[in-house]
Amino acid sequence: MNAADRHQPYPHPARLILILSLAPTVGIGIGRFAYALVLPDMREALVWSYSAAGFMNTVNAAGYLAGALLASRMIRRFGLSATVRWGTLACVLSLALCAMTGNFYLLSFARLLAGLGAAAGFVGGGALAARIAQSHPKGANFLLSLFYAGPGIGILASGLIAPFVLQEIGPGSWWIVWWAMTALAIAMTVPLLLAPLQAGATSTGTEIARFAVAPVLVYLAGYFLFGAGYIAYMTFMIAYVRDAGGGAAAQSAFWSLIGLSAFVTPWVWRRVLALDRGGLATAIILGANAVGAAMPILGHSVWLLSASALVFGVAFFAVVGSTTAFVRFNYPPQAWPNAIAALTISFGIGQTLGPIAVGAITDAMGSLSFALNASAAMLALGAVLAAFQGKVGKKAASSE
């Protein structure tokens, strides 16, 4: 805990976790997902194939994977608060870099940096949110849901800005959108820099327990498929809506519906997240996520696409929350940073391979419908695998 954290008054735990949620808001909601909003304009202005467009999210996911691999070391050396703050600042820098250049290699570096910072902020923030929630056992699952609703704020905010900037200024204005996203991210980072982030968290000392992979292999495999499956939907759905004739208002509405769904996630899944039965909660929520991803395959109607955005969104934000609930139920607090990092690594590998593979399929087949088919199938299979995960004894879970 740094000096600022020691001398500030302790805020309410819900307020503190909402401030913590600004880390994934910036790193994931804006840093990762705003790319889908500017992708069609960038692809046309910079003459990219779908494979090149997918590569930008692949390199972002590779950065996220690297950040997850390094997160435990960063937390041990710098602490949870500093890891969250520096990771989020790296994401802000990456957004500014995206606005400054159209060079493919520099943009790739910016996307890599965004992923690295997002993972640091997410793993550190998730572990810290779990510790704060543990201090209030009766409302722990609800408090954790608040943290994982963070990306929805970024998705909603960017969805209300980017499509209209692109429409008003016209083709080639993608870089202006990135400046707008940078300004938005800066405003959201300020509370993270000022708040006493570790106030009210349970103290577990400096020791970080080991994490055993073998007892949760099937769960890690399911989470890998979630990473591979969701990213195809989130990367290419705006292009799908636009190809179906949707203008700025339709694109904004679709994206905003995904973001808005995050705000009801804590209430919709509250009882499911309280299920201490291995991977059952994750399986239920991931199954709903697969249904949402499959809906656009059935047609292009406004109502169908709206339902898809809502169902996908309300489940998407809860899947990650269910994994942290799984960690909290099955591992001692000292193992939480390593357990969350291991899950994030599995997720990161999936979302690294997903975009470029699906982009290549789309280039080969000539239709984004194949991307959505692949997305829904991977999410459904991930749900099946998660359902086979049983409870893990805490002593066995953290042994070598």
How much helix is in the residues?
over 70%
Radius of gyration: 19 Å
Estimate the mean pLDDT confidence: 85
Structural class determined from secondary elements: mainly alpha
The end-to-end distance, rounded to whole angstroms, is 29 Å
Strand content is under 5%
Largest sheet: none
Discrete helix count: 19
CATH architecture type: Up-down Bundle
Question: CATH class, anyone?
Answer: Mainly Alpha
Low-confidence sequence ranges: 1-8, 396-400
Q: What is the CATH superfamily?
A: MFS general substrate transporter like domains
Here the CATH topology equals Growth Hormone, Chain: A
Reading the helices and strands in chain order gives HHHHHHHHHHHHHHHHHHH
User: In the residues, how many domains can be counted?
Assistant: 1
General form: globular
> How many β-strands, per DSSP?
0
Description:
With 400 residues, this protein is mainly alpha-helical. It has a single domain (12-397), classed as MFS general substrate transporter like domains (Growth Hormone, Chain: A), CATH 1.20.1250. 78% of the residues lie in helices and 0% in strands. The chain has 19 helices and no strands. The chain has helices spanning 3-7, 13-20, 22-30, 34-45, 50-78, 80-100, 104-134, 140-148, 150-169, 174-194, 217-243, 248-261, 265-268, 270-273, 280-294, 302-330, 336-365, 369-387, 394-397. The longest helix is centred in the N-terminal third of the chain and has 31 residues, at 104-134. The radius of gyration is 19 Å and the shape is globular. Mean pLDDT is 85; it is low at 1-8 and 396-400.
